[in-house]
Design brief:
The chain has 158 residues and is α/β, with parallel strands linked by helices. The chain has four helices and six strands. It has one domain (2-149): Tetrahydropterin Synthase, Chain A.
Length: 158
């Protein structure tokens, strides 16, 4: 059986590797739909609040009104330098690859799975008309070959 839970958060990002409008710093109201595999053992499988108790605080603390940024983006070093010089702190969520919606789905899938939930898939809406559906199969493939994320290339086997 599947349980679907929906969440949202606001965050800034940029795709520094692109040569279009998305290279500029901008923000989105991200929508996240999580699809959990649960086992029915009687009338109730899982309380919806069990998901919310872990996922909502995680999104609020690590994503909401923060900035998603690739650790190799030159802007990241500039922001860190600003923090050190001024004492001002930003909510930076550092990625090891470009901050695409596909990579956001990969990151969220892993973080929510680490909370102990069995995810079948996650849908991440970057805009009202643009949605990425990311499955458990996608997550396994990306973990086998991190080069798929567009960060550092996967090491070659000898």
């Amino acid at each position: 059986m599947l349980i679907q839970k929906d969440y949202k958060f606001y965050a800034a990002h940029r795709n520094e590797e692109l040569c279009d409008k998305c290279r500029n710093l901008h923000g989105h109201r991200y929508g996240v739909s999580c699809f959990f595999e649960v086992e029915r053992q009687g009338a109730l499988t899982t309380l919806f609040g069990d998901f919310d108790d872990k996922i909502e605080p995680h999104l609020k603390q690590n994503y909401d009104h923060g900035m998603l940024i690739n650790g190799s983006d030159p802007l990241y070093a500039t922001l860190r330098d600003h923090e050190q010089r001024t004492g001002e702190k930003f909510r930076l969520n550092v990625f090891s690859a470009p901050t695409t919606v596909e990579n956001l789905a990969h990151k969220l899938f892993g973080e929510i799975t680490e909370m102990g939930f069995r995810m079948q898939r996650i849908e991440v809406r970057e805009t009202d008309t643009s949605v990425v559906t990311y499955t458990h199969k996608d997550w396994l493939a990306d973990n086998r070959d991190p080069g798929r994320l567009g960060g550092e290339p996967a090491p070659q086997e000898a």
